[in-house]
Protein backbone atom coordinates (compact mmCIF):
# COMPACT_ATOMS: atom_id res chain seq x y z
CA UNK A 1 0.00 0.00 0.00
CA UNK A 2 2.85 2.35 0.78
CA UNK A 3 4.33 1.77 -2.71
CA UNK A 4 0.98 2.66 -4.31
CA UNK A 5 0.77 5.87 -2.29
CA UNK A 6 4.28 6.82 -3.34
CA UNK A 7 3.42 6.17 -7.01
CA UNK A 8 0.29 8.29 -6.81
CA UNK A 9 2.21 11.10 -5.13
CA UNK A 10 5.16 10.89 -7.56
CA UNK A 11 3.28 10.45 -10.86
CA UNK A 12 -0.55 10.56 -10.77
CA UNK A 13 -0.91 9.91 -14.52
CA UNK A 14 1.30 6.81 -14.32
CA UNK A 15 -0.75 5.61 -11.35
CA UNK A 16 -3.97 6.15 -13.31
CA UNK A 17 -2.56 4.22 -16.28
CA UNK A 18 -1.50 1.39 -13.98
CA UNK A 19 -4.98 1.25 -12.41
CA UNK A 20 -6.60 1.13 -15.86
CA UNK A 21 -4.30 -1.71 -16.85
CA UNK A 22 -5.13 -3.56 -13.64
CA UNK A 23 -8.82 -3.03 -14.26
CA UNK A 24 -8.50 -4.55 -17.77
CA UNK A 25 -6.54 -7.50 -16.37
CA UNK A 26 -9.12 -8.14 -13.65
CA UNK A 27 -11.99 -7.91 -16.17
CA UNK A 28 -10.21 -10.33 -18.49
CA UNK A 29 -9.63 -12.76 -15.60
CA UNK A 30 -13.31 -12.55 -14.62
CA UNK A 31 -14.40 -13.19 -18.22
CA UNK A 32 -12.08 -16.20 -18.53
CA UNK A 33 -13.28 -17.57 -15.19
CA UNK A 34 -16.87 -17.19 -16.35
CA UNK A 35 -16.14 -19.04 -19.60
CA UNK A 36 -14.39 -21.81 -17.68
CA UNK A 37 -17.31 -22.11 -15.26
CA UNK A 38 -19.70 -22.34 -18.23
CA UNK A 39 -17.69 -25.24 -19.61
CA UNK A 40 -17.40 -27.07 -16.29
CA UNK A 41 -21.04 -26.67 -15.29
CA UNK A 42 -23.25 -24.82 -17.77
CA UNK A 43 -26.20 -23.49 -15.70
CA UNK A 44 -28.48 -23.26 -18.74
CA UNK A 45 -28.07 -27.00 -19.27
CA UNK A 46 -29.76 -27.68 -15.93
CA UNK A 47 -32.22 -24.80 -16.07
CA UNK A 48 -33.32 -25.01 -19.70
CA UNK A 49 -32.19 -28.42 -20.88
CA UNK A 50 -29.85 -29.59 -23.59
CA UNK A 51 -31.72 -27.87 -26.43
CA UNK A 52 -31.56 -24.44 -24.80
CA UNK A 53 -27.92 -24.84 -23.78
CA UNK A 54 -26.83 -25.94 -27.26
CA UNK A 55 -28.81 -23.16 -28.96
CA UNK A 56 -27.29 -20.56 -26.62
CA UNK A 57 -23.80 -21.91 -27.28
CA UNK A 58 -24.42 -21.99 -31.03
CA UNK A 59 -25.58 -18.37 -31.06
CA UNK A 60 -22.19 -17.22 -29.81
CA UNK A 61 -20.05 -19.23 -32.24
CA UNK A 62 -20.09 -16.82 -35.16
CA UNK A 63 -21.14 -19.25 -37.90
CA UNK A 64 -24.61 -20.42 -38.94
CA UNK A 65 -25.64 -23.37 -36.76
CA UNK A 66 -28.80 -25.47 -36.81
CA UNK A 67 -29.62 -27.37 -33.61
CA UNK A 68 -31.95 -30.38 -33.67
CA UNK A 69 -32.48 -32.19 -30.36
CA UNK A 70 -34.97 -35.04 -30.11
CA UNK A 71 -36.17 -35.96 -26.61
CA UNK A 72 -33.06 -35.62 -24.46
CA UNK A 73 -35.06 -35.56 -21.23
CA UNK A 74 -34.52 -38.15 -18.54
CA UNK A 75 -30.83 -38.58 -19.24
CA UNK A 76 -28.30 -38.55 -16.40
CA UNK A 77 -26.70 -35.12 -15.87
CA UNK A 78 -23.18 -36.39 -16.60
CA UNK A 79 -24.35 -37.77 -19.96
CA UNK A 80 -26.04 -34.49 -20.93
CA UNK A 81 -23.01 -32.49 -19.78
CA UNK A 82 -20.69 -34.67 -21.87
CA UNK A 83 -22.89 -34.38 -24.97
CA UNK A 84 -23.01 -30.61 -24.48
CA UNK A 85 -19.23 -30.31 -24.07
CA UNK A 86 -18.53 -32.47 -27.14
CA UNK A 87 -20.90 -30.43 -29.30
CA UNK A 88 -19.57 -27.15 -27.91
CA UNK A 89 -15.96 -28.14 -28.59
CA UNK A 90 -16.80 -29.20 -32.15
CA UNK A 91 -18.55 -25.87 -32.77
CA UNK A 92 -15.67 -23.91 -31.29
CA UNK A 93 -13.26 -25.78 -33.56
CA UNK A 94 -15.35 -25.05 -36.66
CA UNK A 95 -13.77 -23.09 -39.46
CA UNK A 96 -14.92 -19.47 -39.72
CA UNK A 97 -16.15 -20.16 -43.27
CA UNK A 98 -18.29 -23.15 -42.30
CA UNK A 99 -21.85 -23.79 -41.24
CA UNK A 100 -22.84 -26.55 -38.84
CA UNK A 101 -25.69 -28.85 -37.93
CA UNK A 102 -25.95 -30.27 -34.40
CA UNK A 103 -28.16 -33.33 -34.02
CA UNK A 104 -28.94 -35.16 -30.77
CA UNK A 105 -31.36 -38.06 -30.56
CA UNK A 106 -32.32 -40.48 -27.85
CA UNK A 107 -32.21 -44.10 -28.90
CA UNK A 108 -33.42 -47.17 -27.02
CA UNK A 109 -30.35 -47.46 -24.79
CA UNK A 110 -28.17 -44.53 -25.78
CA UNK A 111 -28.06 -40.88 -26.65
CA UNK A 112 -26.43 -40.24 -30.02
CA UNK A 113 -25.02 -36.90 -31.11
CA UNK A 114 -23.41 -35.43 -34.18
CA UNK A 115 -21.95 -32.11 -35.22
CA UNK A 116 -21.61 -31.85 -38.97
CA UNK A 117 -19.49 -28.95 -40.13
CA UNK A 118 -20.00 -28.15 -43.79
CA UNK A 119 -17.60 -26.03 -45.76
CA UNK A 120 -14.39 -24.56 -44.51
CA UNK A 121 -11.21 -26.49 -43.91
CA UNK A 122 -11.26 -29.77 -42.03
CA UNK A 123 -10.05 -30.07 -38.44
CA UNK A 124 -7.04 -32.03 -39.69
CA UNK A 125 -6.19 -29.30 -42.22
CA UNK A 126 -6.44 -26.69 -39.45
CA UNK A 127 -4.09 -28.75 -37.25
CA UNK A 128 -6.52 -28.98 -34.33
CA UNK A 129 -7.48 -32.66 -34.24
CA UNK A 130 -5.67 -33.15 -30.90
CA UNK A 131 -8.09 -30.77 -29.17
CA UNK A 132 -10.78 -33.46 -29.25
CA UNK A 133 -8.73 -36.24 -27.62
CA UNK A 134 -9.71 -35.29 -24.07
CA UNK A 135 -13.38 -35.39 -25.07
CA UNK A 136 -12.92 -38.87 -26.49
CA UNK A 137 -11.43 -39.95 -23.16
CA UNK A 138 -14.38 -38.45 -21.29
CA UNK A 139 -16.92 -40.18 -23.55
CA UNK A 140 -15.13 -43.52 -23.30
CA UNK A 141 -14.99 -43.19 -19.50
CA UNK A 142 -18.80 -43.18 -19.58
CA UNK A 143 -18.86 -46.29 -21.79
CA UNK A 144 -19.48 -44.47 -25.07
CA UNK A 145 -17.61 -43.74 -28.26
CA UNK A 146 -16.60 -40.63 -30.19
CA UNK A 147 -15.28 -40.33 -33.73
CA UNK A 148 -14.04 -37.38 -35.74
CA UNK A 149 -13.75 -37.59 -39.50
CA UNK A 150 -12.85 -35.00 -42.09
CA UNK A 151 -13.97 -34.74 -45.68
CA UNK A 152 -11.23 -34.21 -48.28
CA UNK A 153 -12.85 -31.00 -49.54
CA UNK A 154 -13.42 -29.53 -46.11
CA UNK A 155 -15.77 -30.02 -43.26
CA UNK A 156 -15.64 -32.22 -40.23
CA UNK A 157 -18.05 -34.68 -38.64
CA UNK A 158 -17.95 -35.39 -34.92
CA UNK A 159 -20.26 -38.16 -33.83
CA UNK A 160 -20.69 -40.13 -30.68
CA UNK A 161 -22.95 -42.16 -28.50
CA UNK A 162 -23.30 -42.57 -24.76
CA UNK A 163 -25.16 -45.44 -23.11
CA UNK A 164 -28.18 -44.70 -20.96
CA UNK A 165 -29.01 -46.62 -17.79
CA UNK A 166 -31.90 -49.04 -18.07
Summary of the model, kept short:
The chain is an alpha+beta fold. It has helices at residues 2-10, 12-40, 43-59, 77-93, 123-126, 133-141, and strands spanning 65-70, 99-106, 110-118, 145-150, 156-163.
Descriptive key words:
166 residues; alpha+beta; Heat Shock Protein 90; 6 helices; elongated
Structure description:
The chain is of the alpha+beta class and 166 residues long. The chain folds into two domains: 2-37; 49-163, 2-Layer Sandwich (Heat Shock Protein 90), CATH 3.30.565.10. It has six helices and five strands; from the N terminus they run αααβαββααββ. The chain has helices at 2-10, 12-40, 43-59, 77-93, 123-126, 133-141, and strands spanning 65-70, 99-106, 110-118, 145-150, 156-163. Strands 1-2-3-5-4 form a five-stranded mixed β-sheet. Strand 2 (99-106) and strand 3 form a beta hairpin. The mean pLDDT is 82.
Radius of gyration: 21 Å
Question: How much strand content do the residues show?
Answer: 15-25%
What about the largest sheet?
5 strands, mixed
Whole-number total of structural domains:
2
CATH topology of the largest domain: Heat Shock Protein 90
CATH class of the largest domain: Alpha Beta
Shape: elongated
- The helix tally amounts to 6
Order of helices and strands: HHHEHEEHHEE
Level of helix content?
40-55%
- The overall average pLDDT, rounded, is 82
Distance between the termini: 61 Å
Q: What strand order characterises the main sheet?
A: 1-2-3-5-4
Content-based structural category: alpha+beta
Task: List segments where confidence is low: pLDDT < 50 over at least 5 consecutive residues.
Answer: none
Name of the CATH homologous superfamily of the largest domain: Histidine kinase-like ATPase, C-terminal domain
